[in-house]
Design brief:
single chain, Serine Threonine Protein Phosphatase 5, Tetratricopeptide repeat, five-stranded antiparallel sheet, three-stranded antiparallel sheet, 51% helix, 8% strand
């Protein structure tokens, strides 16, 4: 079995700079209707769900405790699964709906889609089927909390029209994480709305009801309509293309999330021509941009992935956190009033919450994404995606004159125009000049930081040649104390110039950056086998990364305790850390904990628990776990041995670029395990793995005189 021990990878490629956006308010003009019910055109509100005594006879393996809710399309009960002694929720459909074949087909498809999803932010489906009487049902995870619609209504009840801004952003981040996972599985929710977003007692978000999911797979039948032929979804949250009964993809969910974000911020669903959040509640104007872009009429003008939208939301939230920290420091020194008067600073727009004190929205300048060609390393013109424009405040700095403010506005507009030319160098030069000329204008630094953050997470990775073209500008930004630029430098220099990479990581870590601490830990870990000082250094940085909230630091630290690297071996501490990370939903921790159960490291051997954890990790996308899962099927660990299934897993992983799976697939082809012997094909996959640097594959190729081409 393997664990993921890779050092930090080079930074992703395709620098993402935002594209065009339209006049705010046009996107929701076609959205109307009820907020709570699907647009099925089917009025079944008269249906009365079975009483508890009757419901108990429908589910003999469960103790039905209470009716949680009901609607025209079914009822939900809280129950206790007797054999496993766990609380569950049971969704039951009316008998008259269940017996309709077309609807029952769609319901079964809903349950199958949900059962394929295993993610901390998605409600888990345990079972589904039909009762003896014919009612369709599924059994799912019980969430001890409330749905978002209830939270919004409760806010209105107590006289607050909106949720706390930070709470809203955290919810959107988690919803985006859940949808990103589902979209990677080819599943579109199609009915994202507050009633389908649960928030538990620990503020964890769970997305519910993938019943309108459309599987984007070859040969899938489109069952996107109800029996009455009406479009499925909830009108207030439906994307325009969904309202028009067109084919929809994952970008329809992004539209719905944008509508939901506006409702959380402003207390109502946007309709027609609506005012941006900053004018309604005085929040950060960059939230206007996020809502505007997510709710564009044309899908191609929205965020193109939930990962991209999440990055934008995280950027705004991190800015608010810095504002809070700055405010607290000023409060401690008793200098808030003086500083605010001198610099025109206004902290925490949500606490002001004045509906008339909002900051004007962004200027509306067109911008565009900038990308780096993987083949040539040349900077190329981008596709159209929305930007995060910098709004020039009414008073940029203390003592500014109308003339200097006008000059600043022109400079910002010119920089935004340069973003549309596809010239990274000139664009960064323009923003850097604004930062130098107006050092007190924090928004310009934050705009640069956002660009570098997007650069770091974008895919595919940027080539070193493309990086070199803009390295001077990135270095200038780093020297202006922008940690995100320091990280980009470190990521792209770690293989070419490790000393320089370490210096940049150290500077970013000095600014409190958790990712930099983890990167430093990984570099020291790779050196620690022959250098005890480096091993101790790795522990220090992994601990700092964990303390600053990077869960990768927790997992890495657990491995060090497990093998006694840089610290005294402590399996109990290792397991404790792994459990914390696994419970937080980290797939790598799940894989490592499963490996511990498999080997009996720090816990009793439990093959069933090992299989459960490793299969869950693989479902969440952990590449090493996919290979480990194949090994379990091959050896019969916690599951009936199935060499054919194992080889299928190896083949799928190998074709997706998983080096671990390449080696195992090659081994299966070489010896005919779960597949016919095919030596030449085995040699091909050994060669691919050797090209990626796998030591076992390299030795095999040398032994069999297989020529491995240079990876470069």
């Amino acid at each position: 079995m393997r664990e993921e021990t890779d050092p930090p990878q080079s930074a992703p490629s395709a620098p993402v700079m935002p594209g065009t956006w339209n006049v705010f308010g046009s996107s929701a003009s076609s959205v109307s209707g009820s907020q709570s019910g699907p647009a099925t055109g089917d009025a079944r509100q008269s249906w009365v769900p079975p009483a508890l005594e009757e419901a108990a006879t429908l589910f003999p393996g469960y103790e039905v405790l209470q009716l949680l809710g009901r609607g025209g399309m079914g009822a939900v009960y809280q129950a206790r699964q007797i054999e496993l002694d766990r609380l569950v929720a049971i969704k039951l459909l009316p008998l008259e709906i269940s017996v309709d074949k077309s609807f029952s087909d769609r319901f079964r498809r809903e349950a199958q889609a949900m059962a394929r999803l295993h993610h901390p932010n998605i409600i888990t489906v345990f079972d589904f089927g039909a009762t003896r009487q014919g009612h369709l049902f599924f059994v799912m995870e019980f969430v001890d909390g409330a749905d978002l619609l209830q939270l919004i209504h409760e806010s209105r009840r107590i006289g607050v029209s909106d949720l706390d801004c930070d709470d809203a952003l955290k919810i959107v981040e988690q919803v985006c994480t859940a949808l990103e996972y589902a979209h990677e599985k080819g599943i579109v929710h199609r009915d994202i709305k507050p009633a389908n977003v649960m928030v538990d007692a620990k503020h964890r978000v769970k997305v519910a009801d993938f019943g309108l999911a459309r599987l984007l797979e070859p040969g899938t039948i489109d069952l996107g309509h109800t029996m009455t032929g009406m479009v499925m979804g909830t009108p207030d949250y439906m994307a325009p293309e969904q309202m028009r009964d067109m084919n929809v993809d994952h970008r329809a969910d992004i539209y719905s999330v944008g509508i939901m974000l506006y409702e959380m911020l402003c207390g109502e669903v946007p309709k027609g021509s609506f005012a941006p959040p900053s004018r309604r509640i005085g929040c950060d104007p960059r939230l206007d941009v996020i809502v505007r872009r997510a709710t564009q009429q044309a899908a191609e003008n929205r965020y193109q992935s939930t990962q991209e939208m999440k990055a934008a939301v995280e950027g705004v939230r991190s800015r608010r956190q810095r504002q809070i920290s700055k405010r607290n420091r000023l409060l401690a020194s008793g200098a808030v009033a003086l500083a605010a008067a001198a610099a025109g600073i206004f902290f925490l727009p949500h606490l002001q919450n004045s509906k008339n004190s909002g900051t004007p929205g962004p200027s509306g300048k067109k911008t565009a994404e900038l990308s780096a060609s993987e083949a040539t390393g040349k900077l190329s013109a981008p596709t159209a995606l929305a930007a995060t424009p910098v709004a020039v405040p009414a008073k940029a700095t203390a003592g500014t004159t109308p003339a200097s403010e006008a000059s600043l506005s022109r400079a910002v507009a010119a920089a935004q125009d340069l973003e549309g030319t596809g010239d990274w160098g000139k664009t960064l030069d323009a923003w850097l000049q604004i930062v130098r000329d107006h050092p007190d204008l924090q928004a310009s630094k934050e705009h640069l930081a956002m660009l570098f953050k997007q650069l770091k997470v974008s895919k595919p990775p940027i080539t070193f040649e493309a990086f070199q073209k803009i390295r001077p500008q990135i270095t200038d930004a780093a020297q202006l104390d922008i940690p995100e630029a320091m990280l980009v430098l470190g990521d792209n220099l770690v293989n070419q110039d490790p000393d320089a990479a370490r210096d940049w990581y150290l500077k970013a870590a000095g600014k409190g950056n958790a990712m930099a601490e983890y990167a430093l830990g990984a570099m020291s870990y790779n050196e620690g086998a022959s250098n005890p000082l480096a091993a101790a250094d790795a522990i220090k940085h992994y601990q700092a990364a964990m303390d600053r909230g990077d869960i990768r630091g927790t997992v890495a630290l657990s491995r060090c305790y497990r093998i006694g690297f840089g610290v005294e071996k402590d399996l109990r501490r290792s397991i404790q850390l792994l459990r914390e990370a696994a419970e937080a939903g980290d797939p790598v921790a799940m894989n490592d904990l499963g490996d511990c159960y498999l080997r009996g490291d720090g816990v009793p051997v439990d093959l069933n628990e090992a299989f459960k954890l490793i299969s869950r990790s693989a479902e969440l996308g952990c590449e090493i776990a996919k290979g480990n899962l194949g090994e379990l099927y091959m050896r019969g660990g916690g599951v009936t041995a199935d060499p054919k299934k194992a080889t299928e897993i190896f083949a799928e992983g190998a074709k997706a670029g998983n080096v671990f799976c390449m080696v195992h697939y090659a081994h299966s082809l070489e010896f005919g395990e779960g597949i016919d012997k095919k030596f030449l094909e085995a040699a091909y996959w050994y060669g691919k793995a050797a090209q990626a640097g796998d030591p076992k594959a390299v030795l095999w190729c040398k032994k069999h005189a297989v020529v491995v081409p240079d990876a470069n």
